[in-house]
Design brief:
By secondary structure, the protein is an alpha/beta fold. 31% of the residues lie in helices and 17% in strands.
Length: 248
């Protein structure tokens, strides 16, 4: 279980969100990830991707947001759904109202999802926040309303990214298997253990899920190896290296 100190404050996490001021190497790493993802989903009718992690505090939500931003920069219409209805952070990262959201739609409080989608958060990027924390998030994700929602947004958006809780903590991400194109795992060097990754992959396999790849965070790879190392002023190292291959 991750220590509380492992989780960055929201104010610091915002510094990792892609912007015009983001370093060139970081943007290029995400573009490489985007290219791999586009080719990986070329044969899929539903370009709906679940992003999760093995354990807490591995950077899944920030990576999910940045992948959505990177994809939207191609001109594709993108929706990010915060389906972490246990500890949602997308609304905090983006300073959005979260009085209504996904839980409101799945709980039947809001019938028209278009009324709770935040339009134009970035160019070509919309956000559906998690909404108030419900007492039964797993049941809501497994229900027919979630299936209907996925079908609906799949018709109106070119790509959909779904932020879900860590897979070794709760089963929420696995409940979406069969309804989406697959799962991307965020793993953090020096934090995620190999046994945690093996456990996550086994759970995915047992539920007939598809692993699209990994986003490796906090690594110190050389630029020639496809990764990038960089530091922010407050000395927190973060790196993105997307790999479409089985983790061994």
């Amino acid at each position: 279980m991750a220590k509380k100190s492992d989780r960055l404050p929201i104010s610091q996490s915002r510094k990792f969100i892609l912007s015009d001021d983001t370093q060139f190497a970081i943007k290029e790493a995400y573009k490489a990830a985007r290219t791999n993802l586009v080719f990986s989903l070329a044969e899929d009718e539903r370009k709906i991707v679940v992003i999760t992690s093995c354990s807490p505090s591995e950077g899944k939500s920030t990576n999910c947001l940045n992948m959505a931003i990177t994809m939207s920069e191609t001109g594709a219409d993108v929706l990010l759904i915060d389906a972490d209805m246990r500890k949602p952070v997308q609304h905090s990262l983006l300073r959005l109202d979260n009085k209504t959201g996904l839980s409101s739609v799945l709980g039947g409080i809001v019938r028209d999802v278009s009324k709770v989608i935040n339009r134009g958060v970035r160019s070509h990027l919309d956000i559906l926040t998690a909404g108030p924390i419900p007492p039964n998030p797993a049941e809501l994700l497994q229900g027919s309303k979630m299936e209907q929602l996925i079908e609906l947004v799949g018709e109106h958006y070119d790509y959909v990214f779904i932020d879900t809780p860590p897979i070794n903590v709760v089963t929420d991400a696995l409940l979406l298997n069969g309804r989406t194109a697959g799962i991307i795992f965020v793993v953090k060097e020096g934090h995620t253990r190999h046994e945690e990754i093996r456990e996550s992959l086994e759970k995915t396999r047992m539920t007939n899920g598809r692993v699209l790849g990994f986003i490796k965070a906090n690594c110190a790879a050389k630029s020639s190896g496809g990764g990038y190392k960089y530091n922010y002023k407050y000395k927190y190292k973060y790196n993105y290296n997307y790999k479409y291959q089985e983790y061994k």
